[in-house]
Write a structure and sequence with these properties.
By secondary structure, this protein is α+β, with helices and mostly antiparallel strands. Among the domains are: about 160 residues, Alpha-Beta Plaits; about 130 residues, no CATH class. The protein has a six-stranded antiparallel sheet, sandwiched between helices. β9 and β10 form a beta hairpin. Bound molecules: zinc ion.
Length: about 450
């Protein structure tokens, strides 16, 4: 199985050469800087810290410099810590054991540390789970998380062939009276990691799409305002350089620290805090050479029927409303075709394309008015981050509207690589031509 078809051209372009150039530039910038060390980079010797290969940690005000530094030292990872209530952070590159030692030394209410999941860093499967208790009274959060773990263990066995024990799922809790909050970190056999956070995100979406309607409903909760239902799994965490709160840390000015949940406590009571800390890190492994798991997008992904418990905007008789694996994009398209609705979505993994068949909204950019009877469709090219309109009216069969930009917040997977070169090679143009031809064929034959 190959990954190229899911991520055409983009990740393949992360050339070593370019990376090396960036690293060299960053290094030079740090070394030649006359700024006070605390404002840019600082080599902090920790005379009291336990030895772990290297004793240095480096603190930066810029996240990318810390990430670049960590690339040079294989046993380094990147962390951030909040320095003010407005979310401002500094970034540290260093060995995790030293970072743990630093965190442990701080007073309990001063620990505001996050692991930075670098965009190209291999990482574990993890989940950020939360719901608001006041809008979901009487929902047994712990019990629902336990069911989710069972489903996950079954799915991992089926999809990846790994047999997982409950104790392989580290379950951290940071719940308050208002909010139920858990982090699940999955430690796979052989300490295997996924290729990067993007692959984890695709895997999680696939997992969710494999659930039955009933199973999905069980993990769906009213949102903060209480006006719509959503999964209690936060899908936005699988994005570029995500900061994920560490074990024993709280958010700035908050009391609630991430600690072992009751269920994990029962299973892992013999582990030290340091062991739990290392086990909880998303990007850390004792076995860095294990094969990385890649999730190819070329697999046929089935569409997820809409959860009937979710309110449907349209009042027309039971529209066959559908959702794709990209809820952010679905939501955006739904927004621009009000009062219409999405009748059907077709996902073409090999072309990274979503085709939305629209009903109840027939505005066509070709005739610049609504069609009387023929429907329109919207096409989203995920790899280019654009969308356009096409039309089922016979007079419009060759029409394609101009490309419009998909908002960045709808495509966290593109943001993962947004500092790379745009598509400019002949291959990219060939790809685009092929894609357009295939869509034209479909419309003509519809
Ligand atoms: Zn038209």
């Amino acid at each position: 199985m190959e990954t190229g078809s899911f991520y055409p051209a983009h990740p393949a372009k992360l050339s070593d050469l370019k990376r090396k150039r960036r690293l060299a530039a960053a290094e030079k910038r740090v070394e030649s800087s006359n700024l006070h060390p605390a404002t840019l980079g600082i080599s902090q010797l920790n005379p009291k810290a336990p030895t772990s290969g290297s004793e240095d940690t480096f603190v930066f005000t810029v996240q990318n410099l810390a990430l670049d530094k960590a690339v040079i030292y294989p046993d380094y990872r990147v962390f951030s810590f909040e320095i003010a209530s407005d979310g401002r952070r500094h970034f540290l590159a260093g060995p995790p054991t030293i970072v743990f030692w630093k965190i442990k030394r701080l007073k309990r209410h001063k620990r505001h540390w996050y692991e930075v999941i670098g965009q190209r860093c291999p990482c574990k499967l993890y989940f950020d789970i939360e719901f608001h208790r006041d809008k979901n009274p009487d929902r047994p959060g712990s019990q629902i998380v336990a069911q989710l773990k069972d489903l996950l263990i079954a799915y991992i066995r089926l999809r990846l062939g790994f047999i997982l024990e409950l104790s392989d799922i580290l379950d951290l809790e940071s719940s308050t009276n208002n909010k139920f909050s858990r982090h699940l970190i999955i430690n796979l056999p052989g300490e295997r990691l996924f290729e990067n956070n993007l692959h984890v995100g695709v895997f999680v979406r696939e997992f969710i799409s494999s659930l039955t309607e009933e199973e999905r409903r069980a993990i769906t909760f009213w949102d903060k305002q209480g006006d719509k239902c959503e999964l209690f799994i936060d899908l936005s965490v699988y994005s570029k350089n995500r900061n994920f709160r560490t074990y024993l840390s709280s958010k700035f000015d908050r009391q609630s620290c991430l600690v072992l949940s009751e269920s994990s406590h029962r299973l892992l009571s013999d582990l030290s805090d340091k062991d739990i800390f290392l086990k909880s890190l998303i990007t850390w492994t004792e076995n860095p050479h294990a094969d990385k798991i890649k999730i190819p997008g070329a697999v046929q992904v089935t569409l997820v029927p809409n959860d009937p418990s979710i309110k449907v905007r349209s009042t027309s008789a039971t529209p066959a409303n559908h959702r794709s694996l990209f809820p952010e994009v679905d939501h955006f398209i739904e927004g621009i075709i009000k009062p219409g609705f999405v009748r059907k979505i077709e996902w073409k993994a090999s072309l990274m394309t979503l085709e939305y068949e629209i009903q109840g909204y027939r505005y066509c950019y070709n005739v610049r008015r609504w069609h009387r009877s023929n429907n329109i469709k919207y096409i989203v090219l995920l790899n280019r981050g654009v969308y356009f309109q096409m039309c089922h009216d016979p007079d419009c069969q060759d029409f394609k509207s101009e490309d419009l930009k998909l908002p960045l917040n709808t495509q966290p997977w593109v943001q993962l690589f947004d500092d790379e070169d745009p598509f400019e090679t002949d291959n990219d143009r060939d790809f685009e031509d092929e894609l357009l031809l295939s869509i034209y064929d479909k419309v003509v034959n519809a």
